[in-house]
Design goal:
The complex is a heterodimer of chains A (about 130) and B (about 160). Chain A has about 130 residues and is an alpha/beta fold. Chain A is built from 5 helices and 5 strands. Chain B is built from 3 helices and 9 strands; from the N terminus they run βαβββααβββββ. The radius of gyration of chain B is 15 Å and the shape is globular. The chains are: A alpha/beta (about 130), B alpha+beta (about 160).
Chain lengths: ~130, ~160
């Protein structure tokens, strides 16, 4: 698999590290990891960095993950970048809202590296 | 930390205790690689040097807290990150995320509630010299578990 550039969006720096580690444990080689602590920061990061994958929390201050996904959907430069939500919000309505807004995958916290593999590899066009 | 427990009631919400315990056990097992079981609260009471809290609003209205001593909070962060947490901020961040995941896991297990209950972002207090008075003083369920031999208290206070 080619090395990928990932944007990890979570208000917890600890969780951002865990998500990055889980990606590596899933066998995904990372060329670059860009971090943001909320949706607004992530939008700026997207304007300044080319990425192949976005992993995003929902409950964050300033701009939450659902609004971020909606905003990304309107960005021509971000078209086609797969977004996978990683969140404690496990309700059906959150899943529907996220997928309707443009997310391609949904992982509920707490999660295992195997779940990251199962949900992230398909959106990268790979078999889990 | 001191917490007013006089309002603790025995009601049907007590049935939520097994759900809370299961939510706690799953988070510790999946995120920290440790199996934990509830212990008697009379024998093990954490100092509460670190307290993480999450607000719940909507169908469930209240607060969920996770409290432990500083050393245990550091061990939690170390288990999550695989190395020693570098700062008190990182230790608090880790405990806040554990609290966040327990709250989310708990509400996701309550059929019909998960859609109608919102969570706040976590808040973490470090230092034990404070009193916590929640306005959600209707019902309370609490579980104490041992992590690395030290007690961790998980308390859910809900508005009646």
């Amino acid at each position: 698999m080619d090395k990928i550039r990932a944007l990890i969006v979570d208000d917890s720096s600890v969780m951002r590290k865990i998500v990055e580690r889980s990606l590596r444990q899933a066998g995904i080689e990372l060329e670059k990891v860009v971090e943001a602590s909320n949706g607004a920061e992530a939008l700026v990061a997207l304007q300044n960095n080319a990425v192949d994958l976005i992993l995003c929390d929902i409950n964050m201050p300033v701009m939450d993950g659902l609004e971020f996904v909606r905003q990304v959907a309107t960005m021509e430069s971000a078209k086609g970048i797969p977004i996978v939500m990683i969140t404690t919000e496990g309700s059906e309505s959150h899943v529907v809202q996220a997928l309707s807004a443009g997310a391609r995958g949904y992982i509920r916290k707490p999660f295992t590296p195997d779940q990251v593999k199962e949900h992230v590899l398909p959106v990268l066009g790979k078999k889990p | 930390m001191s917490t007013d427990t006089s309002f603790v009631t025995r009601s049907h919400e007590e049935n939520w205790l097994p759900v809370l315990e299961l939510a706690v056990e799953e988070v510790f097992e999946i995120m920290l690689g440790t199996r934990v079981k509830p212990v008697a609260s009379s024998e093990h009471m954490p100092s509460g040097e670190f307290t993480a809290m999450i607000g719940l609003a909507g169908a469930l209205c209240g607060i969920l807290t996770v409290s432990c001593d500083a050393k245990t909070a550091g061990q939690v962060a170390k288990s999550m990150l695989g190395d020693t947490a570098k700062s008190a901020e990182e230790v608090g961040d880790a405990l806040g995320e554990i609290c966040n995941m327990i709250a989310g896991n708990f509400k996701n297990k309550l059929a019909g509630t998960d859609d109608r209950c919102m969570l706040s972002v976590p808040t973490v207090i470090s230092g034990g010299e404070y009193s916590l008075h929640s306005l959600a003083d209707g019902n309370c369920v609490e579980t104490i578990l041992l992590f690395e031999g030290a007690p961790v208290a998980v308390r859910l206070q809900l508005q009646s």
